[in-house]
Amino acid sequence: MTARRPWWKTMLGIVFTALMLFPVYWMVNVSFTKTQDLRLSPPHIFPTDPTLDGYTEVLRQQLPNLGTSLLIGLGCVALTLVIAAPAGYAIALLNMRGGRTLNFVLLVAQMIPGVVMAMGFYAIYVRLGLLNSVGGLILADSTIAVPFGVLLFTAFMSGLPRELLQAARIDGAGAWRTFISVVMPLSRNSALTVALFAFLWAWSDFVFASTLARNSVLKPVTLGIYSYIGNNTTQWNAIMATAVVASIPAAILLIVAQRYVAAGVTAGAVKD
Amino acid sequence: MTIKTVPDTRPERDAAPVAELPRKRRRAGLNGSRWAAAGFAAPLVVYLLAFYAYPLIRSIDLSVHDYTVRAFVQGNAEFVGLQNYIDVVTSPLFGQALGNTVVFVVGSLIFQYAIGLALAVFFRNSFRLSGILRALFLVPWLLPLIVSGSTWAWMLNSDNGIVNSFLQAFGIGQINWLTSPDTSMIAVIIANIWLGIPFNLVILYSGLQSIPEDVYEAASLDGAGAWRQFWSITFPLLRPVSAITLLLGLVYTLKVVDIIWVMTSGGPANSTTTLAIWSYREAFGTGQPDLSPAAAVGNILIIIALIFGFIYLKMQRRQENS
Description:
The complex is a heterodimer. By secondary structure, chain A is mainly α.
């Protein structure tokens, strides 16, 4: 599909994107600014005299936190996929009794504010001694992604051609076999999409982290930034450097996997 | 994106005899898989009970007791019935927090959706670099909210922020975005709109892709221009996707804590205290956790979210039937 008027649209697109990404640029710019230049008016638009002070500080302090966030993100991805994919299959393709009710419950579950969940988890974790633990945080963070995951798998799988599943059944494949060898390979893009979001939401979570892991030795990076802001209200270059470092993995993940996101969502359109 | 339910696969009774054999097989297969379906859904059901239902029950339990820090440890909180709810609703802060929530949600959604839709239409037909540009548009969405929040807080800083120094170039005097109760809400809404545009763009763009190209071709053969095509094809055909986008946007926006907390902590003078922020502050924002009123506020927020949820579900059902 080649466009008729490509170049002015490209120009306009670049302008829109630049406007949209300006705050991101500004974060990077400030992170390279020297402390004494932060109060300049008007501020430097480009980092003409860059400094890496903010970054050396950040890497020394935040490296363990970044590792913790990575661990929590991966844990959430695994948990979300294991629960959401089979459930989506049951609702979309196995004609499950109560599937409609379950869909309804999931929609409702998505509406529950994180604050309320955090209070509930807090009350439970106090008794179980799970406060300030990575495992407890993984469980809590996964609640952000599981309902979304099931709904996405359900939506995609109900778009799969039924003939394919009938063929598998006629060939003697049971429900499990069909799931593993037919449905899951076809749903690869959906699985990637779900995994991507499960990771990002866990990585970015602040509400659960700030309530359930306040005094944890292993802090996620969001909490690291937050306490950093509290302690350094003047050194915005260091704060922005932390922010840049915290954004890098998320940004890489999206740029690399962006086509899977698009493919995963649009693949559902290929049906009757 | 609409979630289809099963009945449309069921064979009709008066089907042609030729198709009888495979249909019978399929029905047997479906009946046989009932147990399999339950098995595949079992982990989810257990998960929902343990990690949704149980925390919710605990939060309701918190809201009908008087949990002080000591009572929390000893587990002997006094049962007070609906007293926490009565205290919360009659508090002067309640009306303000409710009003702030409405302004925050409506202000955010209108602009997120309108800008997201405009961009989705802009990106519908690919042009040179469109894929890369569209990918870049998603970046704000992926940034941890705490990152975006602190960036916006610095950009909107009264003395040293880039926004004010840009406005000063046009002769507009200093605006105390985050420190004046008149503008703080606008400031957090601006940041939240920025955060929500990528989500709206992705969902609406994917919705646009499922509108067949020949509909547009037919329309342009009939002489419909771009504006006409948008209002007679794109907008009506996109309605189910729009409903989902707006509902999910509503849900996400009602719950927002991070961005407001990082930028203003609900201040100044409670001008950005939404229900979610109020609840968070009571529970975890101060040195003295006061979980019982916080849970009451949180549960009121759930009820509000559910009311909109039911409106949405009713709307969706009507769309399926028509």
